[in-house]
């Protein structure tokens, strides 16, 4: 079976959800829960992680986030999936005005099967970009897998519930291995909401 596909040939899609500002659905927690409900209506075989509370990234960028992960199958290409995700964000009042600021809902397409988009060299460029450069630069196209995936415990912790054995098509590391490589303090800062 090809990397990132199930036995029927559908792509296994990984998405990170988060928010730290109220929306029409209510609190950030209510917003993420409502977004999960909406995504479940759109995508087949949809699974969501528990909800987590995490400090804003980078530190001091705003109130704590409510985060979750999602995994589902889709025959759509990554651009079509991203359009649907952006449509759901808009439903919950997401405005793309400030990078790494407060937001009602953030739906990040983390991976779509074993796709490396737009190509390996572009992925490597964005993956190796220093933090200060990331703050100033934004890709003008979809980069997959998400180039900062291995650096973010707030994405890895929820996804480890759903797809611990998914392996990165460039590095070969699984979600579980990437999570284990994060510093303990970072992993411990991602706490389960009750």
UniProtKB/TrEMBL annotation:
Domain spans labelled 7,8-dihydro-6-hydroxymethylpterin-pyrophosphokinase: 15-164
Functional pathway: Cofactor biosynthesis; tetrahydrofolate biosynthesis; 2-amino-4-hydroxy-6-hydroxymethyl-7,8-dihydropteridine diphosphate from 7,8-dihydroneopterin triphosphate: step 4/4
Record-linked InterPro entries: Hppk, Hppk_sf
Broad class of enzyme this protein falls into: transferase
Pfam family for this entry, one: HPPK
The entry's keywords: ATP-binding, Folate biosynthesis, Kinase, Nucleotide-binding, Transferase
Any one GO MF annotation of this record: kinase activity
Superkingdom: Bacteria
EC number per UniProt: 2.7.6.3
GO BP term (any one): folic acid biosynthetic process
Annotated function: Catalyzes the transfer of pyrophosphate from adenosine triphosphate (ATP) to 6-hydroxymethyl-7,8-dihydropterin, an enzymatic step in folate biosynthesis pathway.
Family statement drawn from the similarity comment of this UniProt entry: Belongs to the HPPK family.
Protein name stated in the entry: 2-amino-4-hydroxy-6-hydroxymethyldihydropteridine pyrophosphokinase
Origin species: Thalassorhabdomicrobium marinisediminis
Annotated gene: folK
């Amino acid at each position: 079976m090809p990397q990132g596909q199930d036995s029927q040939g559908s792509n296994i899609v990984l998405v990170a959800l988060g928010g730290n500002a109220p929306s029409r659905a209510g609190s950030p927690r209510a917003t993420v829960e409502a977004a999960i409900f909406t995504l479940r209506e759109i995508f087949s075989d949809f699974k969501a992680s528990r909800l987590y509370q995490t400090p804003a990234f980078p530190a001091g960028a705003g109130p704590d986030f409510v985060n979750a992960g999602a995994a589902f199958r889709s025959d759509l290409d990554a651009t079509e999936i991203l359009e649907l995700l952006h449509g759901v964000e808009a439903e919950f009042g997401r405005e793309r005005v400030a990078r790494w600021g407060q937001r009602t809902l953030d739906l990040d397409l983390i991976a779509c099967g074993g796709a490396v988009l737009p190509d390996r060299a572009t992925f490597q460029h964005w993956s190796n970009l220093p933090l200060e450069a990331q703050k100033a630069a934004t890709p003008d196209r979809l980069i997959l897998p998400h180039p900062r995936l291995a650096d973010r415990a707030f994405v890895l912790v929820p996804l480890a519930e759903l797809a611990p054995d998914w392996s990165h098509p460039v590095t070969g590391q699984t979600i579980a291995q990437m999570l284990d490589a994060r510093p303990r303090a970072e992993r411990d800062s991602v706490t389960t909401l009750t």
